[in-house]
Design a protein that fits this description.
Blueprint: H1 3-14, H2 20-23, H3 36-50, H4 55-65, H5 69-85, E1 89-91, H6 96-105, H7 110-126, H8 128-131, H9 139-147, E2 150-152, E3 162-167, H10 178-192, H11 196-201, E4 203-208, H12 214-217, H13 222-235, E5 240-246, H14 253-261, H15 265-268, E6 271-274, H16 277-280, H17 299-312, H18 314-319, E7 324-325, H19 327-330, H20 337-351
Parallel strand pairs: 3-4, 4-5, 5-6
Antiparallel strand pairs: 1-7, 2-3
């Protein structure tokens, strides 16, 4: 198919049904016409640009993360110095929202934050089919997004956590492979990682496996599952607070048991399995879920909102690929020896 035609098709698939709000003048934050949800949306947008937490969360950040203005500025300066002097890092973002991903995840342990930053840059380069070219206008990626496979819910849960819903039955394993699935996940994650509230309060994952088929299970080799979970746990700056699985078919149970067995004990304790959606809603407030799960907002509306956000952030997502690290130089750096030895062991498994 002609590339320009594919791009046109992707644009039409990803284009929200109603873009008028993009051209309307933005109301003032204090306008009485704004709903509480609209006001929160505007506030979070401003926080995202600066990395600043809202006043009501700053004390929580001080207690849980040791975050205080002086420490924060000192830590940011030290991370920028680390990047500037690093023999292997060729180019990297140094803005506050990006660096705070790592500092907040590691509770302001600067050595641990710098180590995770190295790991993050390394996996993006070692596994480009999973972590690069996060283009919402890529035809395959756009189609998977439009199908509603993966959606960050507009409303946070009662604890302020961002909730990400995946619906396995909406991913067609006959049309798309594991690399497309991985890039969709990576794109959504990158969309969310600069949110200061999420950096502090963390994330909840809700995975609905209804509609899962054997071809879904065979998308991923066991080696790739190991590598991906290693990347998620050790190289992605996210505070995973809770993960729910629901509607797992009998032939998928062993697959998820294997995946969970690879998690750290801390993350294992944060995984819950539910037989039905009714069981799920005992632990997840149904009001924040799509209408199809007991909420009020249809999943289609949530998908349209996601499309708007992805298109708005498209240039930022693509610019991530400008970050560059010299993998050969990293081999001489003690902080990343275990990444390379781990990757080497995975390659050995593939040959066995």
């Amino acid at each position: 198919m002609d590339v320009s035609r594919e791009t046109t098709m992707a644009t039409s698939v990803l284009q929200p049904e109603d873009c008028r709000r993009e051209h309307e003048p933005k109301p003032d934050i204090d306008s009485p016409r704004l709903t509480e949800d609209e006001r929160t949306y505007i506030l979070e947008g401003k926080e995202r640009e600066t990395g600043e937490l809202p006043p009501e969360l700053r004390e929580k950040a001080r207690i849980e993360l040791r975050e205080e203005p002086a420490l924060r500025e000192q830590a940011l300066a030290q991370m920028r110095h680390f990047i500037e002097k690093h023999p292997a890092i060729r180019k990297c973002r140094t803005d506050a929202p990006f660096l705070l991903r790592f500092l907040r995840t590691k509770k302001y342990s600067i050595p641990q934050a710098c180590s995770m930053l190295e790991r993050y840059l390394t996996i993006r380069q070692m596994y480009p089919n999973w972590f690069q070219k996060l283009d919402p206008l890529d035809p395959k990626v756009a189609a998977v997004i439009d199908a509603g496979y993966l959606v960050p819910l507009p409303k946070r849960d009662a604890e302020g956590r961002r909730v990400v819903l995946s619906c396995m039955g909406r991913f067609d394993p006959h049309l798309y492979d594991s690399c497309v699935m991985a890039r969709v996940h990576s794109m959504i994650v990158e969309l969310l990682l600069d949110e200061p509230r999420s950096q502090l309060l963390g994330y909840m994952h809700v995975n609905d496996e209804a509609g899962m088929q054997m071809p879904h299970v065979s998308l991923w080799s066991l080696t790739d599952v190991r590598i991906m979970l290693n990347c998620i746990q050790n190289s992605t700056p996210m505070r995973h607070k809770c993960t729910h699985f629901v509607n797992i078919p009998h032939y998928g149970v062993r697959f998820f048991e294997f995946a969970v067995s690879l998690l750290s004990d801390k993350l294992k304790d944060r995984v819950m399995f539910h037989r039905t959606s009714e069981d799920l809603t005992k632990h997840v407030d149904p009001s924040i879920l799509p209408k199809e799960y007991g909420g009020t907002v249809p999943l289609r509306d949530m998908v349209e909102e996601l499309k708007r956000n992805l298109l708005k952030r498209r240039e930022e997502l693509l610019a991530l690929d400008e970050m560059c690290v010299d993998l050969y130089a990293l081999e001489k750096n003690d902080l990343t020896q275990d990444i390379h030895s781990t990757a080497g062991s995975f390659r050995k498994l593939e040959l066995d």
